[in-house]
Amino acid sequence: MGDKKPPLIKLIRRDKLLLLMFLPVFLYYFIFCYLPMPGILIAFKNFTPGHGIFGGDWVGLKWLNQFVHSRYFWRLLRNTFLLAFYPLVIGFSIPILFAICVVEIKNGVFKRFAQTVTYLPHFISTVVIAGMIINFLSPTDGIVNTMLASFGMAKINFMMAPEWFRSIFTVSGIWQSFGFSSIIYIAAIMGIDQEMYDSGKIDGVNKFQEVWHLTLPSLKPTIVILLLLSIGGIMSVNFEKVYLLYNGATYETADVISTYVYRQGIESQNFGFATAVGLFNSVISFILVYAANQMSRRVNDMSLW
Asked: Where, subcellularly, is it found (predicted)?
């Protein structure tokens, strides 16, 4: 007979320290992600504060139908998709390239300096980042407009120009996140069997061939998993940053589903409508990650599940 699995109590006692470390993560997701789930009912009711989520009359898909047929629907969908798509397409490869460059640096002091400098922006508050962007792009004394004026060019009021918002959002997001995102790739590169590189050097491969034929194929599982996770969050644009940077003049290119939900739910107190829009956003996100997972499974034989 095969070995019996140890009883649950014994496993808990054995791994009690690991479980204790995991407890805050479990409580966070349980309290803020699972307990609020019954609130989805509000999306199908004429909700009134004070009557609870189980009170009010059923309205079915009224709020969802109202959102889909509103004049803001396609604008919100387009802005949400583009503000997530641009950083994904432009910025996804930058942490990979940076990780490869960091690993190749031989000077330990410079390597630690480069990593520290690029990691720091990730830990700066979004409010501070937004304040820095607004100050740097100020039309009066911002450093960018000061440089433009020194070259004889006209100053630009970037924060009031809808055509500049997506570029500002994308570039600042990549700058803030690429260093910290590279940590996973650096760890993956360090885990690659060094004998493979030694064999490549014996065969006479140059540095570019080493990266293209050895490093990147070895990183493929990590890249695929992180890409799938990124696609899953493509509809979850950084609400705080958009809210802090946008204004009425830039709604055409800056207003996204999450900011629209905030205005409808918190400012206008239209809770049922806001919940329906948020539920729509979550369903689209699930469909995207499921489709990307199925495609990855068929093409690369790798997936999240």
From this structure: Cell membrane
> To which residue do tokens 């508050």 refer?
125
Tokens representing residue 80 in the block: 């949400």
Q: Is 228 in contact with 303 (CB distance < 8 Å)?
A: yes
Over the stretch 39-83, which tens digit does the pLDDT of each residue have?
Answer: 889 999 988 887 878 887 899 899 999 999 999 999 999 999 999
**Dist CA 220 CA 20 (whole Å):** 33
Q: Which residues pair with 58 in a beta bridge?
A: 45
Q: Cα separation of 255 and 248, whole Å?
A: 9
Q: What is the chain's alpha carbon radius of gyration, rounded to the nearest angstrom? A: 24
Range in 180-184, 193-197, 231-235, 240-244 the model is least confident about: 231-235
Both tokens assigned to 158: 């970037």
What distance in Å separates the CA atoms of residue 232 and residue 230, rounded to the nearest whole number? 5
Residue 59: how many CB atoms within 10 A of its CB? 17
Q: Exposed e or buried b for every residue in 128-165, given b needs 16+ CB within 10 A?
A: ebbeebeeebbeeebebbeeeeeeeeeeeebbebeebb
